[in-house]
Structure formats: structure tokens, C-alpha cells
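can u do me a favor
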């Protein structure tokens, strides 16, 4: 009897990349940052949620800045340095 061999190749799964960040207000007075991932056609990844409470605005901005590739994204320090210099 003839042996049948099936060709197989390993499908390379690419890691999901963050496509966008969504920021919205939360019920606790803070903010929620959703990490929405690219759909690479192989595996769907649910958005991740990061919750920042009331008074954690600096931490939320630092988090977003780091994920978006903003150099030296220490927003709390930046807010203190620029306080009073911004015009509405």
C-alpha cells in the first residue's frame, strides 16, 4: 500500500499590533483607554482596557504617550512645567 504524505508548513502568526487607542470618560470620574488591535487576518484580539481613576490624568496621558511613541512621554512633569503658559 502506498503511503500518502501531506505537505505541511508552519503558518507564521504575527503578533497583533495596536491600531488605535480610544479614550473615554469612566463612571468613577477618570478615564478608560482601550487598546484596539489590527486584525491581521489570522487571529482576532479583543481590545484591552486600562482604567485610570479620578485624579490619575497624568498617568493616563503618560500611558497614551508611551504607546503612541511620544518621546519622553512624562506628561505629569510636562503639565507642571507648562502650567500657566497655555492660553485657552
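np, heres the sequence
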Amino acid at each position: 500500500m502506498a503511503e500518502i504524505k501531506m505537505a505541511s508548513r508552519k503558518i507564521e502568526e504575527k503578533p497583533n499590533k495596536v491600531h488605535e487607542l480610544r479614550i473615554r470618560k469612566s463612571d468613577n470620574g477618570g478615564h478608560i483607554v482601550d487598546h484596539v488591535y489590527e486584525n491581521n487576518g489570522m487571529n482576532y484580539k479583543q481590545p484591552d482596557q486600562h482604567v485610570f481613576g479620578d485624579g490619575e490624568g497624568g498617568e493616563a496621558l503618560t500611558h497614551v504617550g508611551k504607546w503612541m511613541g511620544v518621546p519622553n512621554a512624562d506628561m505629569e512633569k510636562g503639565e507642571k512645567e507648562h502650567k500657566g503658559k497655555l492660553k485657552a
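The radius of gyration is 21 Å. hope that helps!!
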